[in-house]
Amino acid sequence: MFADGTLVRVLDHTIFGHCRTPLYLKGKVGEVVSLTGAWRNPETLAYHKPGLPLRRLYRVRFRQADLWDGYPNAGDTLEADLYEHWLAPAERAATGDLS
Asked: Reduced to 3 states, what is the DSSP secondary structure of residue 24?
């Protein structure tokens, strides 16, 4: 479980079939904003499976300049809802302050 303010890296897994994690976030570092709850896994629900066990879903903030080459506004951020099984702890030095 990740606490608010924890830096996380989005895992760069390749999966075949339904994937709710945006490709442009894979491998990127962001900061947990909040835990939104625990939900059934949409990656298995898409194939008429029960989606269990429940998976924690986090709102994670990313600096847009870290996502897009040449992005002009350093202070702009993007928030995405990502399931815990796509996240790993990251080092603070990797991104700096995201607030």
From this structure: helix
Beta bridge partners of 57: 37, 83
Q: pTM of the full predicted structure?
A: 0.87
Bridge partners, 32 (sequence order): 60
7-93: which CATH topology? SH3 type barrels. (2.30.30)
Q: Would you tell me how many other CB atoms lie within 10 Å of the CB of residue 37? A: 10
In this structure, what token pair is assigned to residue 37? Answer: 């709850």
**Is residue 35 very low, low, confident or very high in pLDDT (cuts 50, 70, 90)?**
very high
Locate the domains of the chain by residue range. 7-93
Spatial distance between the Cα atoms of 83 and 85, rounded to a whole number of angstroms: 6
